[in-house]
Design brief:
By secondary structure, the chain is mainly beta. Helix content is 5%, strand content 51%. It has one helix and 34 strands. A hairpin with a 7-residue loop joins strand 30 and strand 31.
Length: 437
Protein backbone atom coordinates (compact mmCIF):
# COMPACT_ATOMS: atom_id res chain seq x y z
CA UNK A 1 0.00 0.00 0.00
CA UNK A 2 2.75 2.49 0.87
CA UNK A 3 4.59 1.94 -2.38
CA UNK A 4 1.47 2.26 -4.39
CA UNK A 5 0.59 5.52 -2.69
CA UNK A 6 4.06 6.97 -3.35
CA UNK A 7 3.81 5.89 -6.99
CA UNK A 8 0.56 7.77 -7.39
CA UNK A 9 2.08 10.94 -5.94
CA UNK A 10 4.98 10.74 -8.36
CA UNK A 11 2.63 10.27 -11.31
CA UNK A 12 0.47 13.21 -10.18
CA UNK A 13 3.52 15.45 -9.84
CA UNK A 14 4.66 14.49 -13.31
CA UNK A 15 1.25 15.32 -14.72
CA UNK A 16 1.28 18.70 -13.00
CA UNK A 17 4.73 19.37 -14.40
CA UNK A 18 3.60 18.40 -17.88
CA UNK A 19 0.52 20.59 -17.60
CA UNK A 20 2.67 23.57 -16.57
CA UNK A 21 4.90 23.07 -19.61
CA UNK A 22 1.85 23.10 -21.94
CA UNK A 23 0.74 26.51 -20.62
CA UNK A 24 4.19 28.16 -20.99
CA UNK A 25 4.71 30.20 -24.22
CA UNK A 26 6.99 28.73 -26.81
CA UNK A 27 9.45 31.42 -27.93
CA UNK A 28 12.11 31.58 -30.59
CA UNK A 29 15.50 30.18 -29.51
CA UNK A 30 18.69 32.23 -29.31
CA UNK A 31 20.26 33.33 -32.61
CA UNK A 32 16.96 33.01 -34.47
CA UNK A 33 16.05 35.85 -36.86
CA UNK A 34 12.75 37.61 -37.50
CA UNK A 35 11.91 39.27 -40.81
CA UNK A 36 8.73 41.38 -41.05
CA UNK A 37 7.04 42.09 -44.40
CA UNK A 38 3.84 43.61 -45.78
CA UNK A 39 2.36 43.62 -49.30
CA UNK A 40 2.18 47.41 -49.21
CA UNK A 41 4.09 50.08 -47.38
CA UNK A 42 1.57 52.82 -48.19
CA UNK A 43 -1.98 52.86 -46.88
CA UNK A 44 -4.93 55.18 -47.15
CA UNK A 45 -6.43 56.43 -43.93
CA UNK A 46 -8.46 53.62 -42.33
CA UNK A 47 -6.78 51.16 -44.67
CA UNK A 48 -5.62 47.67 -43.70
CA UNK A 49 -2.83 45.31 -44.69
CA UNK A 50 -1.56 41.90 -43.49
CA UNK A 51 1.76 41.88 -41.62
CA UNK A 52 3.88 38.74 -41.80
CA UNK A 53 6.78 37.79 -39.50
CA UNK A 54 9.05 34.99 -40.69
CA UNK A 55 10.98 33.38 -37.77
CA UNK A 56 14.00 31.28 -38.78
CA UNK A 57 16.34 29.36 -36.46
CA UNK A 58 20.13 29.59 -36.74
CA UNK A 59 20.19 26.38 -38.76
CA UNK A 60 17.98 28.03 -41.40
CA UNK A 61 14.86 26.08 -40.58
CA UNK A 62 11.53 27.55 -39.45
CA UNK A 63 10.96 27.68 -35.73
CA UNK A 64 8.70 25.12 -34.14
CA UNK A 65 5.01 25.56 -34.91
CA UNK A 66 3.25 27.43 -32.15
CA UNK A 67 6.17 29.78 -31.45
CA UNK A 68 4.64 33.02 -30.14
CA UNK A 69 5.40 36.25 -31.96
CA UNK A 70 4.35 39.61 -30.51
CA UNK A 71 3.61 42.57 -32.75
CA UNK A 72 3.72 46.28 -31.82
CA UNK A 73 3.02 49.50 -33.74
CA UNK A 74 3.61 53.20 -33.15
CA UNK A 75 0.41 54.23 -34.99
CA UNK A 76 -2.87 52.51 -35.69
CA UNK A 77 -3.46 49.05 -34.26
CA UNK A 78 -2.67 45.37 -34.82
CA UNK A 79 -5.12 42.54 -34.39
CA UNK A 80 -4.11 40.15 -32.98
CA UNK A 81 -0.99 41.39 -31.27
CA UNK A 82 0.25 37.85 -30.45
CA UNK A 83 0.30 35.14 -33.07
CA UNK A 84 1.65 31.54 -33.08
CA UNK A 85 3.75 30.51 -36.03
CA UNK A 86 2.79 27.98 -38.65
CA UNK A 87 5.70 26.81 -40.78
CA UNK A 88 7.72 29.67 -39.32
CA UNK A 89 5.20 32.38 -40.24
CA UNK A 90 3.09 34.55 -37.93
CA UNK A 91 0.49 36.74 -39.62
CA UNK A 92 -1.55 39.60 -38.15
CA UNK A 93 -3.55 42.52 -39.60
CA UNK A 94 -2.62 46.19 -39.37
CA UNK A 95 -5.45 48.77 -39.17
CA UNK A 96 -4.24 52.25 -40.12
CA UNK A 97 -7.00 54.27 -38.50
CA UNK A 98 -8.05 57.82 -39.46
CA UNK A 99 -4.77 59.62 -38.72
CA UNK A 100 -2.02 60.24 -41.24
CA UNK A 101 1.55 59.45 -40.27
CA UNK A 102 4.22 56.75 -40.29
CA UNK A 103 3.62 53.54 -38.37
CA UNK A 104 6.69 51.60 -37.15
CA UNK A 105 5.62 47.95 -36.84
CA UNK A 106 7.91 45.46 -35.04
CA UNK A 107 7.80 41.74 -34.25
CA UNK A 108 9.57 40.04 -31.33
CA UNK A 109 9.84 36.48 -30.02
CA UNK A 110 12.15 35.29 -27.26
CA UNK A 111 15.80 35.85 -28.07
CA UNK A 112 15.26 36.20 -31.83
CA UNK A 113 17.06 39.11 -33.45
CA UNK A 114 16.19 41.45 -36.31
CA UNK A 115 19.54 43.11 -36.74
CA UNK A 116 20.56 46.63 -35.77
CA UNK A 117 19.75 50.18 -36.98
CA UNK A 118 18.28 50.77 -40.40
CA UNK A 119 19.23 47.26 -41.46
CA UNK A 120 17.05 45.50 -38.90
CA UNK A 121 14.56 43.11 -40.44
CA UNK A 122 12.04 42.79 -37.64
CA UNK A 123 10.64 46.33 -38.15
CA UNK A 124 8.93 47.92 -41.14
CA UNK A 125 7.44 51.34 -41.77
CA UNK A 126 3.92 51.82 -43.12
CA UNK A 127 3.14 55.31 -44.40
CA UNK A 128 -0.49 56.31 -43.85
CA UNK A 129 -2.68 58.86 -45.62
CA UNK A 130 -1.23 62.29 -46.37
CA UNK A 131 2.11 61.29 -44.91
CA UNK A 132 2.57 59.05 -47.94
CA UNK A 133 2.23 61.91 -50.42
CA UNK A 134 5.36 62.51 -52.45
CA UNK A 135 4.09 64.59 -55.35
CA UNK A 136 0.88 66.40 -56.30
CA UNK A 137 0.08 67.47 -59.83
CA UNK A 138 -3.00 69.21 -61.16
CA UNK A 139 -4.44 69.39 -64.64
CA UNK A 140 -7.56 70.92 -66.22
CA UNK A 141 -10.07 69.72 -68.76
CA UNK A 142 -10.35 71.75 -70.93
CA UNK A 143 -7.13 73.67 -70.38
CA UNK A 144 -8.62 77.08 -71.18
CA UNK A 145 -11.90 79.00 -71.11
CA UNK A 146 -13.56 80.97 -73.85
CA UNK A 147 -14.15 84.72 -73.93
CA UNK A 148 -17.55 84.29 -72.28
CA UNK A 149 -16.12 82.16 -69.48
CA UNK A 150 -17.05 78.62 -68.61
CA UNK A 151 -16.70 75.71 -66.20
CA UNK A 152 -13.77 73.33 -66.36
CA UNK A 153 -12.81 70.23 -64.38
CA UNK A 154 -9.72 70.25 -62.17
CA UNK A 155 -8.02 66.89 -61.52
CA UNK A 156 -5.34 66.53 -58.85
CA UNK A 157 -3.15 63.40 -58.98
CA UNK A 158 -1.51 62.32 -55.72
CA UNK A 159 1.44 59.91 -55.85
CA UNK A 160 3.18 58.27 -52.89
CA UNK A 161 6.82 57.60 -52.12
CA UNK A 162 6.67 54.28 -53.95
CA UNK A 163 5.26 55.85 -57.12
CA UNK A 164 1.81 54.42 -56.42
CA UNK A 165 -1.39 56.51 -56.25
CA UNK A 166 -2.47 57.50 -52.75
CA UNK A 167 -6.12 56.86 -51.96
CA UNK A 168 -8.46 58.58 -49.46
CA UNK A 169 -6.31 61.69 -49.04
CA UNK A 170 -7.92 65.09 -48.74
CA UNK A 171 -6.80 67.49 -51.47
CA UNK A 172 -7.30 71.24 -51.09
CA UNK A 173 -7.71 73.28 -54.27
CA UNK A 174 -6.91 76.96 -54.60
CA UNK A 175 -7.71 79.39 -57.47
CA UNK A 176 -6.84 83.07 -57.69
CA UNK A 177 -9.88 83.85 -59.89
CA UNK A 178 -13.38 82.51 -60.39
CA UNK A 179 -15.12 80.09 -58.07
CA UNK A 180 -14.49 76.46 -57.14
CA UNK A 181 -17.30 73.93 -57.01
CA UNK A 182 -15.61 72.58 -53.86
CA UNK A 183 -12.31 73.60 -52.28
CA UNK A 184 -11.61 70.05 -51.07
CA UNK A 185 -11.96 66.56 -52.48
CA UNK A 186 -10.80 63.05 -51.51
CA UNK A 187 -8.59 60.96 -53.77
CA UNK A 188 -10.03 57.81 -55.29
CA UNK A 189 -8.34 54.47 -55.88
CA UNK A 190 -6.41 56.04 -58.75
CA UNK A 191 -5.11 58.78 -56.48
CA UNK A 192 -7.23 61.44 -58.20
CA UNK A 193 -9.35 64.14 -56.60
CA UNK A 194 -11.68 66.32 -58.68
CA UNK A 195 -13.52 69.60 -58.48
CA UNK A 196 -14.77 72.27 -60.89
CA UNK A 197 -13.69 75.82 -61.61
CA UNK A 198 -15.96 78.47 -63.10
CA UNK A 199 -14.09 81.48 -64.44
CA UNK A 200 -14.07 84.03 -67.24
CA UNK A 201 -10.46 85.13 -67.03
CA UNK A 202 -6.96 83.72 -66.71
CA UNK A 203 -6.75 81.74 -63.48
CA UNK A 204 -3.87 80.17 -61.56
CA UNK A 205 -4.69 76.93 -59.73
CA UNK A 206 -2.82 74.79 -57.19
CA UNK A 207 -3.64 71.60 -55.28
CA UNK A 208 -2.29 70.58 -51.85
CA UNK A 209 -2.26 67.15 -50.19
CA UNK A 210 -0.54 66.74 -46.84
CA UNK A 211 2.51 69.00 -46.93
CA UNK A 212 2.91 68.75 -50.71
CA UNK A 213 1.62 71.41 -53.10
CA UNK A 214 1.50 71.17 -56.86
CA UNK A 215 3.12 73.58 -59.25
CA UNK A 216 0.98 76.45 -60.51
CA UNK A 217 -1.40 75.56 -63.30
CA UNK A 218 -2.48 78.51 -65.45
CA UNK A 219 -5.91 78.30 -67.04
CA UNK A 220 -5.70 80.57 -70.06
CA UNK A 221 -8.59 82.77 -71.19
CA UNK A 222 -8.90 82.26 -74.93
CA UNK A 223 -9.63 85.29 -77.10
CA UNK A 224 -12.82 85.01 -79.07
CA UNK A 225 -13.65 86.15 -82.56
CA UNK A 226 -13.51 89.95 -82.79
CA UNK A 227 -14.83 91.57 -85.96
CA UNK A 228 -16.04 95.01 -86.97
CA UNK A 229 -18.15 96.28 -89.85
CA UNK A 230 -18.25 99.66 -91.58
CA UNK A 231 -20.56 100.91 -94.30
CA UNK A 232 -20.34 103.78 -96.81
CA UNK A 233 -22.54 104.63 -99.80
CA UNK A 234 -21.04 103.50 -103.09
CA UNK A 235 -21.79 106.93 -104.54
CA UNK A 236 -19.77 108.61 -101.79
CA UNK A 237 -20.36 109.58 -98.18
CA UNK A 238 -19.16 108.77 -94.69
CA UNK A 239 -21.90 106.46 -93.39
CA UNK A 240 -25.04 104.62 -94.32
CA UNK A 241 -27.44 106.39 -92.00
CA UNK A 242 -29.25 108.05 -94.89
CA UNK A 243 -28.49 106.64 -98.33
CA UNK A 244 -30.84 108.11 -100.91
CA UNK A 245 -32.40 105.69 -103.34
CA UNK A 246 -31.73 106.30 -106.98
CA UNK A 247 -34.48 108.11 -108.82
CA UNK A 248 -33.94 105.89 -111.83
CA UNK A 249 -34.40 102.47 -110.19
CA UNK A 250 -35.25 103.18 -106.55
CA UNK A 251 -32.21 101.29 -105.24
CA UNK A 252 -29.17 102.24 -103.15
CA UNK A 253 -25.76 100.58 -103.38
CA UNK A 254 -23.44 100.54 -100.38
CA UNK A 255 -20.01 99.14 -99.62
CA UNK A 256 -19.28 97.09 -96.46
CA UNK A 257 -15.83 96.58 -94.99
CA UNK A 258 -15.55 93.69 -92.52
CA UNK A 259 -12.37 93.55 -90.41
CA UNK A 260 -10.96 90.87 -88.10
CA UNK A 261 -9.31 92.64 -85.15
CA UNK A 262 -5.67 92.07 -84.27
CA UNK A 263 -6.53 90.40 -80.95
CA UNK A 264 -9.13 88.10 -82.46
CA UNK A 265 -8.85 84.34 -82.43
CA UNK A 266 -8.33 82.54 -85.73
CA UNK A 267 -11.63 82.33 -87.57
CA UNK A 268 -13.15 79.29 -89.17
CA UNK A 269 -15.78 81.26 -91.10
CA UNK A 270 -17.54 84.59 -91.31
CA UNK A 271 -20.86 85.40 -93.01
CA UNK A 272 -22.40 88.77 -93.82
CA UNK A 273 -26.20 88.78 -93.60
CA UNK A 274 -27.42 91.86 -95.46
CA UNK A 275 -30.72 91.96 -93.61
CA UNK A 276 -32.85 91.72 -96.76
CA UNK A 277 -33.03 87.96 -96.99
CA UNK A 278 -29.64 87.54 -98.69
CA UNK A 279 -26.18 86.86 -97.34
CA UNK A 280 -22.60 86.29 -98.47
CA UNK A 281 -19.82 84.07 -97.11
CA UNK A 282 -16.60 85.92 -96.31
CA UNK A 283 -14.31 82.96 -95.62
CA UNK A 284 -12.00 83.05 -92.59
CA UNK A 285 -10.80 86.64 -93.14
CA UNK A 286 -7.23 85.40 -93.17
CA UNK A 287 -6.22 88.61 -94.91
CA UNK A 288 -7.74 90.70 -92.15
CA UNK A 289 -10.48 92.45 -94.15
CA UNK A 290 -13.10 91.86 -96.81
CA UNK A 291 -14.98 94.47 -98.84
CA UNK A 292 -18.43 93.69 -100.22
CA UNK A 293 -20.89 95.85 -102.18
CA UNK A 294 -24.62 95.35 -101.97
CA UNK A 295 -27.67 96.99 -103.51
CA UNK A 296 -30.79 97.58 -101.42
CA UNK A 297 -34.29 98.32 -102.60
CA UNK A 298 -35.73 101.68 -101.68
CA UNK A 299 -39.11 102.40 -100.16
CA UNK A 300 -42.33 102.50 -102.14
CA UNK A 301 -43.65 105.15 -99.78
CA UNK A 302 -42.43 108.48 -98.52
CA UNK A 303 -40.85 106.81 -95.50
CA UNK A 304 -37.24 105.55 -95.36
CA UNK A 305 -36.52 101.83 -95.40
CA UNK A 306 -34.11 100.36 -92.83
CA UNK A 307 -31.95 97.25 -92.98
CA UNK A 308 -29.64 95.65 -90.41
CA UNK A 309 -26.48 94.04 -91.79
CA UNK A 310 -24.90 91.49 -89.44
CA UNK A 311 -21.56 89.70 -89.51
CA UNK A 312 -21.47 86.32 -87.74
CA UNK A 313 -17.94 85.04 -87.09
CA UNK A 314 -17.05 81.57 -85.72
CA UNK A 315 -13.52 80.73 -84.62
CA UNK A 316 -11.62 77.44 -84.69
CA UNK A 317 -12.68 76.72 -81.09
CA UNK A 318 -16.36 76.99 -81.95
CA UNK A 319 -16.78 80.37 -80.25
CA UNK A 320 -19.06 82.82 -82.08
CA UNK A 321 -19.50 86.57 -82.12
CA UNK A 322 -21.61 88.94 -84.17
CA UNK A 323 -21.63 92.64 -84.98
CA UNK A 324 -24.27 94.68 -86.80
CA UNK A 325 -24.71 97.99 -88.58
CA UNK A 326 -27.81 99.80 -89.84
CA UNK A 327 -28.43 100.86 -93.41
CA UNK A 328 -31.20 103.42 -93.94
CA UNK A 329 -32.36 103.97 -97.51
CA UNK A 330 -34.24 107.26 -97.84
CA UNK A 331 -36.95 107.70 -100.49
CA UNK A 332 -35.76 108.66 -103.91
CA UNK A 333 -36.10 112.28 -104.89
CA UNK A 334 -39.10 113.34 -106.92
CA UNK A 335 -37.79 113.54 -110.45
CA UNK A 336 -38.09 116.76 -112.44
CA UNK A 337 -40.50 116.66 -115.37
CA UNK A 338 -39.22 114.79 -118.36
CA UNK A 339 -39.48 116.73 -121.62
CA UNK A 340 -38.37 116.12 -125.18
CA UNK A 341 -37.54 118.82 -127.75
CA UNK A 342 -37.47 117.55 -131.33
CA UNK A 343 -35.87 119.70 -134.04
CA UNK A 344 -34.80 119.33 -137.62
CA UNK A 345 -31.06 119.77 -137.76
CA UNK A 346 -30.66 119.22 -141.52
CA UNK A 347 -33.09 119.68 -144.43
CA UNK A 348 -31.57 118.72 -147.76
CA UNK A 349 -32.78 119.81 -151.17
CA UNK A 350 -35.51 117.67 -152.66
CA UNK A 351 -34.45 115.39 -155.50
CA UNK A 352 -36.14 112.90 -157.68
CA UNK A 353 -35.34 110.34 -154.97
CA UNK A 354 -36.97 112.37 -152.24
CA UNK A 355 -35.93 114.81 -149.54
CA UNK A 356 -33.68 113.84 -146.58
CA UNK A 357 -34.26 115.28 -143.12
CA UNK A 358 -32.07 114.83 -140.03
CA UNK A 359 -33.80 114.99 -136.62
CA UNK A 360 -32.30 115.53 -133.15
CA UNK A 361 -34.18 114.85 -129.90
CA UNK A 362 -33.04 116.63 -126.76
CA UNK A 363 -34.32 115.19 -123.46
CA UNK A 364 -34.19 117.25 -120.28
CA UNK A 365 -35.23 116.58 -116.68
CA UNK A 366 -36.32 113.32 -115.21
CA UNK A 367 -33.15 112.82 -113.21
CA UNK A 368 -32.22 113.34 -109.58
CA UNK A 369 -32.22 116.96 -108.58
CA UNK A 370 -31.37 119.00 -111.66
CA UNK A 371 -29.84 116.13 -113.60
CA UNK A 372 -31.26 114.60 -116.73
CA UNK A 373 -32.48 111.04 -116.70
CA UNK A 374 -30.42 108.54 -118.69
CA UNK A 375 -32.29 107.59 -121.86
CA UNK A 376 -32.37 103.97 -122.92
CA UNK A 377 -34.00 104.33 -126.38
CA UNK A 378 -35.73 106.60 -128.92
CA UNK A 379 -38.69 105.44 -131.00
CA UNK A 380 -39.29 107.48 -134.19
CA UNK A 381 -42.57 107.89 -136.05
CA UNK A 382 -41.88 109.91 -139.22
CA UNK A 383 -45.56 110.54 -139.94
CA UNK A 384 -45.52 109.26 -143.51
CA UNK A 385 -46.82 105.77 -142.92
CA UNK A 386 -43.41 104.10 -142.95
CA UNK A 387 -42.54 101.68 -140.07
CA UNK A 388 -41.36 103.19 -136.80
CA UNK A 389 -37.64 103.07 -136.05
CA UNK A 390 -35.99 102.61 -132.60
CA UNK A 391 -32.47 103.90 -131.94
CA UNK A 392 -30.19 104.29 -128.97
CA UNK A 393 -28.98 107.60 -130.41
CA UNK A 394 -30.93 110.83 -130.08
CA UNK A 395 -30.31 111.60 -133.77
CA UNK A 396 -31.64 109.97 -136.90
CA UNK A 397 -32.41 110.75 -140.54
CA UNK A 398 -35.31 109.93 -142.90
CA UNK A 399 -36.02 110.43 -146.61
CA UNK A 400 -39.48 111.64 -147.51
CA UNK A 401 -41.19 111.41 -150.90
CA UNK A 402 -43.75 114.04 -152.02
CA UNK A 403 -46.21 112.73 -154.60
CA UNK A 404 -47.67 116.19 -155.08
CA UNK A 405 -45.78 117.77 -157.96
CA UNK A 406 -46.72 121.37 -157.13
CA UNK A 407 -47.29 121.77 -153.37
CA UNK A 408 -45.24 120.79 -150.33
CA UNK A 409 -46.66 118.16 -147.96
CA UNK A 410 -46.90 118.60 -144.18
CA UNK A 411 -45.72 115.76 -141.97
CA UNK A 412 -45.79 115.43 -138.16
CA UNK A 413 -42.69 113.70 -136.73
CA UNK A 414 -42.95 112.12 -133.29
CA UNK A 415 -40.19 110.74 -131.05
CA UNK A 416 -40.78 108.80 -127.83
CA UNK A 417 -37.83 108.81 -125.40
CA UNK A 418 -37.70 105.97 -122.84
CA UNK A 419 -35.63 106.23 -119.62
CA UNK A 420 -33.77 103.31 -118.10
CA UNK A 421 -36.43 102.92 -115.44
CA UNK A 422 -39.22 102.76 -118.03
CA UNK A 423 -40.58 106.32 -118.04
CA UNK A 424 -41.38 107.88 -121.40
CA UNK A 425 -41.82 111.34 -122.85
CA UNK A 426 -42.87 112.44 -126.35
CA UNK A 427 -41.56 115.20 -128.58
CA UNK A 428 -43.08 116.38 -131.87
CA UNK A 429 -42.30 118.63 -134.73
CA UNK A 430 -43.81 119.39 -138.13
CA UNK A 431 -41.98 119.55 -141.43
CA UNK A 432 -42.82 120.53 -145.03
CA UNK A 433 -41.63 118.08 -147.66
CA UNK A 434 -40.94 119.85 -150.94
CA UNK A 435 -42.31 118.43 -154.18
CA UNK A 436 -39.97 116.62 -156.51
CA UNK A 437 -38.25 118.99 -158.97
Amino acid sequence: MFKSRNHNVIVLAALVALTGCDKAQLLAPTQSTITVSAPTRVLASNGTTPITAAVIEQAGTPVQNGTTVRFTTSLGRLDPVEVQTVNGLAITTFFAGPNSGRAMISATSGAASGGEGDARTNTIEIVIGAAAVETVTVRANPGSVGPNGGTIELIASVVGTNGQPVESVIVTFNADQGSLGSTTAVTNASGEARTTLTTSQQTVVTATAGIKTSSNLTIAARPGPIVSIACVPAAGGTNCNAVQASTANNTATVSFTVTRATGSSALRAATLDFGDGTSQALGNLAGGTATVTHTYNGSDTSNPRSYTATVLATDINGESASVSISVVVTPRATPTPLSVRLVVTTKETATSNGQRFTFTATVTGGGEGTTNAPIESYRWDFGDGTPEVTTSSNETAHIYENDNENDPQRRTVTVTARTQDGRTAVGRTEILVDPKP
